[in-house]
Amino acid sequence: MPELPEVESVRLGLQAHVRGAKIVRALQFHPRALSSESIAPLASLDDCKITNVQRRGKFLWLVMDKKPLVLVAHLGMSGQFRIEDVGQARHPHCRARFRIKQGRRESFLSFHDQRTFGWLRVDELSKGIPSSISHIALDPFDEKFDRKMVIKKLQAKRTEIKRALLDQNLMSGVGNIYADEALWRARIHPRKMAEKLSEKELATLLTAVSRVMKSALKAGGTSFDDLYTNVNGETGYFENSLEVYGREDDECSRCGHLIKRIKFTNRSSHFCPHCQLRR
């Protein structure tokens, strides 16, 4: 599932291509493309102008000139936005399409989703945030992100630190990939209880979270296959810099011991048993 660096890469691409564009016509091709929580059909966005593209954590939204309407998007496992030429045949996995116009030039903004876990939603802004995601916490890239407050909340969690990192109501944007990578950088075992970590350890961990995601963003995100691409169809290359995620039985670059994978709820955690001791 795309995490903060991947979604931010998509946001930057959309900002460059569709900001200022007018939606001539919005079409839905799959029943699950539109969230059941949508307050209106996609066609309600016809004749709207896209004034901005914003993001919080793994969610992004297009701001319209007909305030307070916005189009919220969650990419799920395989959601993609693509800029396509008018006349280009509709892709088999295209779930929704927006004909947009900038000056005299027209193009398509298409939403592809092979696995159909992603969704679009027409929503309203409340204090600058779409109402349906107002419960989502700030992410480390947000200028209002409060490290000290997040550290205190982590210390109050009676759960494994990996689980706490994935709590989008505590800190958004971190998923399985960057949780594993940040924990490796901070030398913290994924199953260590959050409440047993010191303030210094948690500060080191949050720094690791920010740094690994900034590095991933510079590389365009992590792409293991073509299910994640930016708006131009290009894949990210941070996969080449991953230290533990997806590297089971490879040697740890720091100590030479073998990377291990353990089951974690419905997913896995990758870590170095030598560098990340569970004390």
Element layout with pairings:
Layout: H1 4-18, E1 22-28, E2 50-56, E3 59-64, E4 69-74, E5 79-85, E6 94-102, E7 105-113, E8 119-126, E9 129-130, H2 147-155, H3 161-165, H4 176-185, H5 199-218, E10 260-264, E11 267-271
Antiparallel strand pairs: 1-6, 2-3, 3-4, 4-8, 5-7, 6-7, 8-9, 10-11
What can you see in these coordinates?
The protein is of the alpha+beta class and 279 residues long. It folds into two domains: 4-133, Alpha-Beta Barrel (N-terminal domain of MutM-like DNA repair proteins); 147-271, Helicase, Ruva Protein, domain 3. Helices cover 21% and strands 25% of the residues. The protein contains five helices and eleven strands; from the N terminus they run H-E-E-E-E-E-E-E-E-E-H-H-H-H-E-E. The protein has helices spanning 4-18, 147-155, 161-165, 176-185, 199-218; strands spanning 22-28, 50-56, 59-64, 69-74, 79-85, 94-102, 105-113, 119-126, 129-130, 260-264, 267-271. It has a five-stranded antiparallel β-sheet, with helices on one face. It is globular. The two termini are 31 Å apart.
Provide a compact summary of the structure.
This protein is of the alpha+beta class. It contains five helices and eleven strands; from the N terminus they run αβββββββββααααββ.
